[in-house]
Design goal:
The chain is about 60% helix and about 5% strand. By secondary structure, it is an alpha+beta fold. A four-stranded antiparallel sheet has the order 2-3-1-4, sandwiched between helices. The longest helix is centred in the middle third of the chain and has 64 residues.
Length: about 400
């Protein structure tokens, strides 16, 4: 249980609260032991109830739940952080996790050493947390507005160039019509010498017009092509970011589902052997509860790196399914070969040493379920079979591949 913000009881006699204005009720000076989380969200503190709540929870339990909820929000911000102007995403994620730890355990806030007098041991910096969340929301909103403005500008460039192309073509068509009208007039007058001269002039005019149009179209295509490439690069970067797990920097569940569906289609078309591994970190909840979320996140990152180092082929696909579960799809790989690779994963994970812990205090292991695709499998049935084998491995004692 994390330290409670109800560290001292408030007056039980509610008459002591009477006569105070809303401003006074919101003042930390008047209510030194009031839960500042309530003040932070603009609500006047209320005295603790003498009876348990209807759901059977005490005030202390509710306060702890509030702390856990706020810490969970900060964890979510770290996991799904959006780009912000002038902000390094890894640094932001680390700060969000540090604020979550500060809220949960009342440790020193980010940027302040534990032995610094400013740390005010046991106190939580509610205003700083609120400012951190507000700055993130403002930065993300500004970044989204900038991206939308850039997209509108690119669209406007296309519209303007198309409009200019139509206008220039109309001018060229006007010059051509004038030249043709002169030729028609000369043909009717039978002025042979003048007709010959005018025809030669018309040929020269046509050549010049065609060259001008060709040069203009080539320049426009080069310019628009550069715009399209820039926009395409931005969109591809955004697509890759949307398919990348922010914590481990490997593909996420969305990318896995897409790759799984394509792999099944390739198996139906060509009949190549394919195998899937489902990897689950053993006793991960215990790791989080005993060492904190920061250590748990480090374990997930290290396991992801171990997987990537084992599966090196270009078409080996490693992804995080969510929580402490990972998946690997191996094309052109039999189940026997996949089991051999799974044993390498077990060995590499057993050798992990998580930063901030001693080898004796934290042993990391994983359980692995291996399944080769079978005739008639779709993406759902193949994944379910691998998942069932994983649970057999966990029931058999964990730290093994089946």
């Amino acid at each position: 249980m994390v330290p409670s913000i109800w560290s001292c009881p408030l007056p039980q006699n509610t008459s002591q609260w009477k006569g105070n204005s809303p401003t006074q009720l919101n003042s930390l000076a008047n209510l030194p032991m009031a839960p500042k989380a309530l003040v932070m969200f603009g609500k006047a503190p209320r005295p603790p109830e003498t009876k348990p709540h209807e759901d059977g929870l005490s005030n202390n339990q509710l306060a702890d739940m509030a702390l856990d909820t706020l810490a969970g929000i900060l964890h979510t911000m770290a996991e799904f952080a959006l780009e912000q102007e002038g902000v390094d995403l890894p640094t932001f994620r680390a700060n969000a996790e540090a604020w979550a730890k500060h809220i949960t355990l009342a440790t020193a806030p980010p940027g302040v050493a534990d032995d610094d007098p400013k740390a005010r041991k046991g106190r939580r910096e509610w205003e700083a947390v609120r400012r951190f969340v507000r700055d993130y929301c403002q930065g993300s909103c500004a970044r989204a507005a900038t991206v939308a403005a850039d997209l509108r500008q690119v669209i406007w460039v296309f519209i303007r160039n198309i409009s200019q192309a139509f206008t220039q073509d109309e001018e060229i068509d006007g010059r051509l019509r004038a030249q043709m009208n002169r030729l028609e007039t000369l043909v009717e007058t039978n002025a042979t010498a003048e007709l010959k001269r005018e025809v030669l002039d018309a040929v020269g005019t046509f050549k010049q017009i065609l060259k001008e149009r060709s040069d203009r179209q080539r320049n426009q295509m080069e310019f628009l092509g550069a715009q399209v490439r820039t926009l395409g690069d931005d969109l591809e970067s955004a697509r890759r970011e949307s398919e990348t797990d922010p914590l481990t920097r490997i593909p996420n569940r969305k990318a896995f589902d897409d790759y799984l569906a394509r792999s099944v289609e390739m198996h139906r078309a060509f009949g190549h052997a394919m195998s899937m591994l489902i990897v689950d970190v053993d006793n991960f909840k215990m790791v989080n509860d005993s060492n904190g979320h920061m250590t748990g996140d480090g374990v997930l990152r290290d396991v992801a790196k171990s997987l990537v180092k084992v599966f090196l082929r270009k078409n080996d696909f490693v992804a995080r399914l969510g929580g402490d579960e990972f998946a690997v799809i191996l094309r052109e790989t039999s189940e026997a070969d996949a089991r051999t690779l799974a044993e390498r994963v077990l060995t590499r994970v057993r050798a992990l040493r998580v930063a901030g812990t001693s080898p004796e205090s934290l042993a990391v292991t994983v359980s692995i379920g291996v399944a080769e695709i079978a005739a008639g499998d779709d993406d759902r049935t193949w994944l379910e079979r691998a998942d069932r084998v994983l649970y057999l491995a966990k029931e058999a004692g964990r730290d093994r591949a089946l």
